[in-house]
Write a structure and sequence with these properties.
Elements: H1 3-27, E1 32-39, E2 49-57, E3 63-69, E4 73-84, E5 87-93, E6 96-98, E7 103-105, E8 112-118, E9 127-134, E10 138-146, E11 169-171
Parallel strand pairs: 1-10, 5-11
Antiparallel strand pairs: 1-2, 2-7, 2-8, 3-6, 3-9, 4-5, 4-8, 9-10
Length: about 170
């Protein structure tokens, strides 16, 4: 085989390999849907609040929430909360797995988004854009309405959940 034919075959083999890898990477994809987003209004001089959203993975591959952004906040973190030894504790998570075919619901007392050190308060009825970034699906933005209760909820917020998280013990800070 001459030198040009060898180079041509090598280039063709490379392009076929690249195409196959690209096709395989698209064969299993996360398909993320966001719904029921809401954020608690800040109270008084409070500049920290919590937001909640339902995340559904209708794709064929698992995904992971890796970051959240909100305007006018110095930090936004994904947390989990739960009772430990009779004390409500909150921990920062480095990511949140969204398994294939599963729905992860963020709600008071569980997974939630902490919006920290806001430049301006969030008033009841306002909307806050939240941009959630996933490893596979990339960035997805949803509008969260400011309310003391989840969307479409007739319930009132528990008195102990006033949005300022002063009665929680924060871990990892």
């Amino acid at each position: 085989m001459n030198r040009y034919a060898t180079k041509w075959f090598a280039a063709a083999a490379f392009l076929i390999t690249v195409g196959a890898v690209a096709a395989l990477s698209h064969a299993a994809e996360a398909e993320i849907g966001l719904s029921n987003a809401w954020v608690r209004p800040t109270l008084g001089a409070g500049r920290t609040t919590a937001a909640y959203v339902t995340i559904t993975n209708a794709g064929t591959a698992a995904d992971r929430l890796t970051a959240v952004e909100a305007p006018n906040a110095s930090a936004v973190e994904v947390h989990t909360a739960g009772m430990e030894d009779g004390i409500m504790r909150m921990r920062k998570l480095e990511g949140l797995d969204i398994p294939v075919g599963e729905t992860v619901t963020m709600a008071p007392g569980g997974y939630h988004i902490m919006i920290i050190d806001l430049e301006e308060p969030i008033a009841m009825g306002a909307t806050v854009p939240l941009t959630l970034t996933f490893e596979a699906a990339g960035s997805v933005t949803i509008e969260a309405g400011a309310s003391m209760t989840p969307p479409n909820s007739a319930d009132t917020a528990p008195e102990s959940s006033n949005g300022d998280h002063q009665n929680m013990r924060h871990e990892g800070h």
